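Notes from the 1:1 (GR / supervisor)

We went over the backlog. Supervisor wanted to see one worked example end to end before approving the batch request, so GR pasted a single chain during the call. The sequence is below; no edits were made to it. Supervisor asked that the structure be written out right there so they could see what the output format looks like.
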Amino acid sequence: MRVSTRTAADGEAMCPYRLVLEHVTSRWGVLVLITLLDRPHRFSELRRAIGRVSEKMLTQTLQTLERDGLVHRDAKPVIPPRVDYSLTDLGREAAEQVRALANWTQERMGEVRKARELYDAARER
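Structure output shown during the call:
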């Protein structure tokens, strides 16, 4: 019997679209994509616009989205260094889809709250 240890590469080979879906719909991925829809941002601007994200987490999210071809990193050789992040065409397409879902969530939040209240009340009985 052969024992297999799964790695991220194994998961990517088995179901690559799932990983991209996870990246796009992750907590910070959604916010990065939606924020970059407006315009390119420098790292610090992006971090302030998103709020409550650590530098490490934002860096990892940007690297992941860049690897997937959704975000473009433009490092300018100036002092101090300047790095701008923007969406690629593919990233803009994904961001539009994510924004539509975010808008739907916002529009339907009253119904979600009501459903939660009904659910919680039924569970308490």
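Supervisor's comment: Residues 8-124 form a domain with the Arc Repressor Mutant, subunit A fold (CATH 1.10.10.10).
Batch request approved.
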